[in-house]
Amino acid sequence: MEIIKGGVTAAKGFEAGYTAAGIKYKDRTDMALIYSKKPCKTAGTFTTNVVKAAPVQWDRKVVTGKAKSQAVIVNSGIANACTGAEGYGYCEETAKAAAKVLGVNADGVLIGSTGVIGMQMPMDRLKAGIAKLAEAKNSSLENGTLAAKAIMTTDTREKEIAVTFDIEGTTVTLGGMAKGSGMIHPNMCTMLSFLTTDAAISKKALQKALSEDIKDTYNMISVDGDTSTNDTVLLLANGAAKNEKIVEGTKSFRTFQKALRIVNEYLAKMMAGDGEGATALLEVTVRGAKSKKQAKVIAKSVVCSNLTKTAIAGHDANWGRILCAMGYSGENFDPEKVDLFFESAAGKLQIIEDGTALDYSEEKATEILSQPEVRAVADIKMGKASATAWGCDLTHGYIDINADYRS
User: Mind telling me which residues the site (Involved in the stabilization of negative charge on the oxyanion by the formation of the oxyanion hole) is annotated on (predicted)?
Assistant: First the structure.
């Protein structure tokens, strides 16, 4: 398993394009295309919010249907959420416009949108953008990176990664790009993640691998506690590597799962660390739990705690806030057995032992918590299970961004 340079164009047979269509932003690129030379098997996971954007409804139909996919059209700026039948009709128009210029099946065109809720899509600009994307697409790594930049909203940096791995003597590649900075909460988020692989794999195995992996990656991040209307993860496999077909329950399937975990965890952490207004990635690991579920619930409770997040913003080792968040998680544990550690590139420091504060150095704790990536480790001494969740600090910058998001 090797991490390589690139994103969605790293795998064989995939191309990407980007353009400035003026959907909402007037000073930057705002549309991206992912294209496969060969029809792809697809898998997808989507928001748990009852209010689902039109592209989510469209993509679910594509993923669960029989049509194969060759193209994903993504726009930033307008979410096409809470737009009724008109908004869903625009998805169909988008698919037909893409099919016409790309020569693909409209029933298999996938769509991603992110941005302001409630606005209708300016279809004249969107269709003009699709034509530009078709002309601009190529397989270069640079185009993959620029496509990742084009789907950003309040993100401060593009998010992409690619890995290679061996399947029965054949090199297979898996790459991906994502966007996400605000309206991020476990159970998927205002996040879009697009994954491409040249693996030959059954559709059933592809969906199983994705559905299982998001539980420990995208569903373990939180920025602000808001579960979005648009979050979508799509995984496309075109089989161009010509490996022996991957099916469930095999060594090759487990290898594919490991590669998928590397890609999804990296992208999930990138989103958590790039939270709106954030200055630090907060990683919380709970170990010594009696079950994986217990560890996950407690870890997520801590990363979702606003008081904990503001303490991290202030580089304050206010461990009481962490213990408090653990306590209201709904999971039972003995607070008088908890050990807590803070870690970062500046070192490691035990803060409490058996629920009681140690005589630690506040200066050292502040130094550790002043790094761009900080970690809290809580050992509850009940078993052998563990889980990790990711979040970020909460600063005034979050308010600045969201108080005038629509303007």
Answer: 114-115
Q: 34 has which bridge partners? A: 16, 72
- Per-residue pLDDT band for 394 (boundaries 50, 70, 90) equals confident
- Residue 107 tokens, joined: 């029933």
> Which residues are documented as binding site for substrate?
153, 179, 190, 276, 402, 407
Mean pLDDT along residues 34-54: 92
Radius of gyration of the chain (CA): 22
Q: Is 173 a catalytic residue?
A: no
| Active-site hit among 114, 190, 308, 388 | 190
Q: Which CATH architecture has domain 2-273?
A: 4-Layer Sandwich (3.60)
Residue ranges per structural domain of the chain: 2-273, 281-403
pLDDT of 405 > 70? The answer is no
Q: Do the Cβ atoms of 104 and 70 come closer than 8 Å?
A: yes
Which helix (H) or strand (E) is 343 found in, with range? strand 339-344
Q: What is the pTM of this model?
A: 0.88
Residues 6+ apart with CB under 8 A from 179: 76, 114, 148, 151, 152, 153, 155, 159, 191, 192, 271
Give mean pLDDT, residues 104-124. Answer: 93
Show the CA angle centred on residue 190, arms to residues 34 and 27, nearest 5°: 65
Out of 88-102, 147-161, 267-281, 312-326, least confident range: 267-281
**Mean pLDDT across the chain, nearest whole number?**
92
CATH tag, 281-403: 3.10.20.340
- Please classify residue 64 by burial: count the beta carbons closer than 10 Å to its beta carbon, then call 0-12 exposed, 13-18 middle and 19+ buried: exposed
